[in-house]
Amino acid sequence: MQDTWNPDLYERFLVERSRPFYDLANMVRKQQGMRVLDLGCGTGKLTHYLHTSIAAQETVGLDSSENMLLTARQLEGNGLRFALGRIEENPVAGKFDLVFSNAALQWVTRHEELFAKLRAKLQPGGQFAAQVPAMDSEPVHILAAETAQEFSKELGGYVQRLEVLTPEDYARLLYKLGFVEQEVRLQIYGHLLPSREAVVEWYRGTLLTAYERQLDALTYERFVERYSEKLMKCLEDERPFFFPYKRILMWGCI
Ligand SMILES: C[S@@+](CC[C@H](N)C(=O)[O-])C[C@H]1O[C@@H](n2cnc3c(N)ncnc32)[C@H](O)[C@@H]1O
Questions:
Q1: pLDDT in tens, 219-248
Q2: 209 CB-near residues (< 8 Å, 6+ apart)
Q3: pLDDT tens, residue by residue, 167-213
Q4: 160 touches 210 (CB < 8 A)
Q5: What is the number of H-type helices and E-type strands within the chain?
Q6: In a domain, 1, yes or no
Q7: Peptide bond into 240 cis (omega under 30)
Q8: Per the domain annotation, does 2 fall within a domain?
Q9: Domain count within the chain
Q10: Ligand 1 center to residue 103 CA distance, Å?
């Protein structure tokens, strides 16, 4: 299948997208000589930051996009390496002191099952830290699904839904999986974007990549146009545009 992740498009909002990453990295308890697994590492820049800031002995960044990993591979060395593969297929062998993931687990379904598998990758005393967007009930997501229904014929009925539980369900899940300490936060990041049109650009770099994979180039442009038309009716026409973005940050140790 076509790889529609695009590092340049994704990093157009690098400053905004990095803020929750730094907050998540700050939740990690630094220990000596850690082995770290970063799931859905993307371009690897933040993985590199994590690796050096906690002085990890070894860090493996895993991502299913060869495009994203092209940039990441330039950062390899000093115990940092990257691997191509899908989170749900558990392609990286071994156990880790920290399983980390920023803005990627929402692409994998069945979080109860997934988290149990990730818990099993931890060494005794190991830590898990993850951040997922919680925007599924916002117009940006609802209207993407609505547009997908309008393009049902071209998409063969495909609708991309991102998996996100409530913060309290994540807290319960961590408890059930035997995390002896935990912290789960819902946080709103207020982003100032140049205009409301930038919200569409933001989503072209993430959620809409799923539709881009399913459609030919012209149909995808029509899809984005229609999505944009619907979205503009819901967003205030102000410059700069204030974009409140909800995210769930979670940390636990066993
Ligand atoms: C929103 S980006 C986050 C990248 C990075 N963690 C960051 O914070 O900049 C999501 C990444 O998850 C990757 N991804 C999505 N589904 C995946 C899966 N099932 N297995 C592995 N990687 C996946 C994408 O290729 C993309 O690079």
A1: 999 999 999 999 999 999 999 999 999 999
A2: 4, 5, 6
A3: 999 999 999 999 999 999 999 999 999 999 999 999 999 999 999 99
A4: yes
A5: 11, 7
A6: no
A7: yes
A8: no
A9: 1
A10: 7
Name the 3-class secondary structure at 174. Answer: helix
CATH of the domain at 212: 3.40.50.150
The pLDDT value given to residue 104? 97
Which residues, in sequence order, are CB contacts of 21 under 8 Å at separation 6+? 46, 49, 102, 103, 131
Mean pLDDT, the chain, whole residue set: 96
Which residue among 64, 113, 135, 203 is best mutated to probe the pocket of ligand 1, counting the most ligand atoms within 8 A of its Cβ? 64
Quote the tokens at residue 119: 């818990």
Q: Ligand 1 site: residues with CB under 6 angstroms?
A: 5, 17, 21, 40-42, 46, 62-65, 68, 86-88, 102-104, 107-108, 206
How sure is the predictor about 9, in pLDDT bands with cuts at 50, 70 and 90? confident
In residues, how long is the chain?
A: 254
Residues 6 or more apart whose Cβ sits within 8 Å of residue 233: none
Q: How far is the CA of 145 from the centre of ligand 1 (A)?
A: 20
Q: What percent of the chain has pLDDT over 90?
A: 93
Which atom of ligand 1 sits closest to the CA of residue 206?
A: 1
User: Could you give the CA distance from residue 55 to residue 39 in angstroms, rounded to a whole number?
Assistant: 18
CA 40 – ligand 1 centroid, Å: 3
Domain range enclosing 97: 7-253
Confidence (pTM): 0.95
